[in-house]
Amino acid sequence: MTMDTILPPELVDAARRVIEANRALGRTVAVAESCTGGLVSAALTELPGSSDVFEAGIVTYSNDAKMALLGVSADVLDTFGAVSIAVAWRMAQGALAQSGADVAVAITGVAGPGGGSAKKPVGTVVFARAERGGDPSDVHADRRDFGEIGRGGIRLQAALCALELLLPTP
Fold first, then answer.
1. What is the pLDDT of residues 50-91, one digit of tens each?
2. Cβ proximity of 92 and 126 under 8 Å
3. pLDDT by residue (tens digit) across 51-60?
4. Contact 72, 40 (CB under 8 A)
């Protein structure tokens, strides 16, 4: 079946796996996106029937938005920076708090071409997954370095990674 989509096929395929696997378990998902700018939400909503599974997508590009919409504290942002496990984890927790979802994934990173640093070069992306009823001290987060593969490449790889994290763990 060919689908009418503007998104790359691998992104739509990954989203389809997320929707089908979570639908089978009766689980709903939410995402908190920064550097991907809604790309994960767009991929999930590309599929008919995704409303069974997809609860909410919150794009918080600025630090002010991360604080206002997801409850990330200024202290955490100042101490660790927006691209950090601490911020990604708080974003994921905030997405759970702001939605009725069972699981939430957060994405924050440096898509470039500018904005990188020695410690967080362009291509650095941090992910976190939080589950409703999970232990808040049991942090599920990961930092990936995709390298300088271009802004579009970084955003695509980050979105694919986030979708992978929304798949149920065995």
1. 999 999 999 999 999 999 999 999 999 999 999 999 999 999
2. no
3. 999 999 999 9
4. no
Q: Cα–Cα distances in Å, from 72 out to 56, 76, 120?
A: 18, 7, 20
* Calpha distance 105→115 (Å, rounded): 23
For residue 32 the two structure tokens come to 């908190």
Whose tokens are 């020695």? That residue is 118
Pairing of strands 124-131, 140-145: antiparallel
Half-sphere exposure of 141 (CA within 13 A, CB side): 23
In whole angstroms, give the CA distance from residue 50 to residue 15: 9
